[in-house]
Amino acid sequence: MAESSSWGFHRNFDGNRSVPNGEGERNVRDIEVQTDTKVQGQVPRLCKANLFTLLSLWMELFPKKQASRWENKPLQECGLVVVREHRISGLHCSSDHLHAGQVAVLKHGSRLKGCELYFSRKPCSTCLKMLLNAGAGRICYWPGDAELSLLAHTHTASSVLDAGAGERLRASSRALLGVVLQPLTCTTLQFLEEASLNADFLGRIAADNPSLDTENVYRREYRKNMEDFSQKFLIGDEEQHKMVLSKMGLENFCVEPSLSHLRQHMRNLIRILASVAASVPILLERYGFFANDASESPVSQEVIRHCIIQARLLACRTEDPKVGVGAVIWARGKQSHGDGTGGLYLVGCGYNAYPVGSQYAEFPQMDHRIEESQNRKYRYILHAEQNALTFRSAEIKDEENTMMFVTKCPCDECVPLIGCAGIKQIYTTDLDSNKVKDDISYLRFHKLNHVQKFIWQQKVPVETSAEAALPVANGYIKRRAPEETNSQCNKRLRS
Ligand SMILES: Nc1ccn([C@H]2C[C@H](O)[C@@H](COP(=O)(O)OP(=O)(O)OP(=O)(O)O)O2)c(=O)n1
């Protein structure tokens, strides 16, 4: 699908205003393309810069075994996305021992040359000098508080010194260093929020509990996420935000209307994160990814949910006008290399889209509701699992545990690929399993026997009534008509 050209607005969101001869600025504008707007009926989707940014924020929240020793210290946890030739080649986070930037240097070494790095916080100068030295092409960061906190009450003097050193490194470097967020349209926000509400995970809960108002479950989860994520990633006080921005060398954002635009845009991105995370709700810890034969998963429910939400974020960049699907593949390496993911490393990730390089509307976009079968999308669209396997950044090793996390039940086209790729476990939803939807069928998934299947479902079958078993959202249970069955609960709001 073609991406439209960038916005002039974007210039306000890059921190490279003092790159000599303006070349950096031109480069950034050339690289970034805006796809958030609904261009002539094009599906509203996240542009890559926003997707990578959201993934970096989410990686900061990767579940750790014990609270990080950085807690309440000026050095904050940090998430990082490494992008090579416009594709994600690493998802990382800081650990007890290493900063996220250090993890990237250890994992990728000189392969960082020319890569783009997306940080959830401006990295400290210790990381910055190593990353620049490794040849990173572009270092982007979320314009909230820095990794070495400028808001923490302790050690502020050293944080300020560090920020100064970061500025000096930036000024003398050929690499681009700054903020590359792009504004979201209302259409995109609305589309992505609806997609969260319509995702199969809430669909499963609705199918199991016909009397439960799942929209209310979603809204409650969303509000809680908004509170948590705003506290973590936004700076409530405008004056404090201005102070942080100017110490990080982003004074151009401190003037109006840039400041208001930046703050609003950051808030909108946090809304998307809150909404996507709410699509896989923690429902009294009753729902999770469980094997039907009660086998133990090699990773915890928290880690599974985190990976599924990574996949849901990827789905926000779908090219399918109706349904976004995302897939991520992680493996457990023999050594942990100090990564905050506890030895897990990314093998590949993808979302459903038309073949690489195709132009918008070059291929049919309609589903089986259009009568002429030659005008349907199914023969042209690549599935999330296919893209994750094709564009993987690491090989799948037989001796390691490789896990696939996918937001929709694998179809008959993908099941043999998954079966033969060396994947050991799959985490997904089986809402579509055993269904035939004209051009796409899901009959083979249950036969995928040599891959362990962990399905989104209730842990223990609830024998009491659904109303007693599940929380009543705001004391209100929406009555669903009895004929609203499994398949109807899965209907898209927009359809
Ligand atoms: N594991 C999967 C399953 C599907 N897809 C993709 C292929 C299609 O692009 C889209 C499925 O398209 P449909 O229009 O058939 O979506 P639904 O299954 O929601 O159809 P329905 O409206 O009949 O429920 O998802 C994918 O990437 N990975």
From TrEMBL:
<dbReference type="GO" id="GO:0005737">
    <property type="term" value="C:cytoplasm"/>
</dbReference>
<dbReference type="GO" id="GO:0008270">
    <property type="term" value="F:zinc ion binding"/>
</dbReference>
<dbReference type="InterPro" id="IPR002125">
    <property type="entry name" value="CMP_dCMP_dom"/>
</dbReference>
<keyword id="KW-0677">Repeat</keyword>
<dbReference type="InterPro" id="IPR016193">
    <property type="entry name" value="Cytidine_deaminase-like"/>
</dbReference>
<dbReference type="InterPro" id="IPR016192">
    <property type="entry name" value="APOBEC/CMP_deaminase_Zn-bd"/>
</dbReference>
<dbReference type="Pfam" id="PF00383">
    <property type="entry name" value="dCMP_cyt_deam_1"/>
</dbReference>
<feature type="domain" description="CMP/dCMP-type deaminase">
    <location>
        <begin position="302"/>
        <end position="450"/>
    </location>
</feature>
<protein>
    <recommendedName>
        <fullName>Cytidine and dCMP deaminase domain-containing protein 1</fullName>
        <ecNumber>3.5.4.5</ecNumber>
    </recommendedName>
</protein>
<keyword id="KW-0378">Hydrolase</keyword>
<keyword id="KW-0862">Zinc</keyword>
<comment type="similarity">
    <text>Belongs to the cytidine and deoxycytidylate deaminase family.</text>
</comment>
<dbReference type="GO" id="GO:0004132">
    <property type="term" value="F:dCMP deaminase activity"/>
</dbReference>
<dbReference type="InterPro" id="IPR015517">
    <property type="entry name" value="dCMP_deaminase-rel"/>
</dbReference>
<feature type="domain" description="CMP/dCMP-type deaminase">
    <location>
        <begin position="52"/>
        <end position="167"/>
    </location>
</feature>
<keyword id="KW-0479">Metal-binding</keyword>
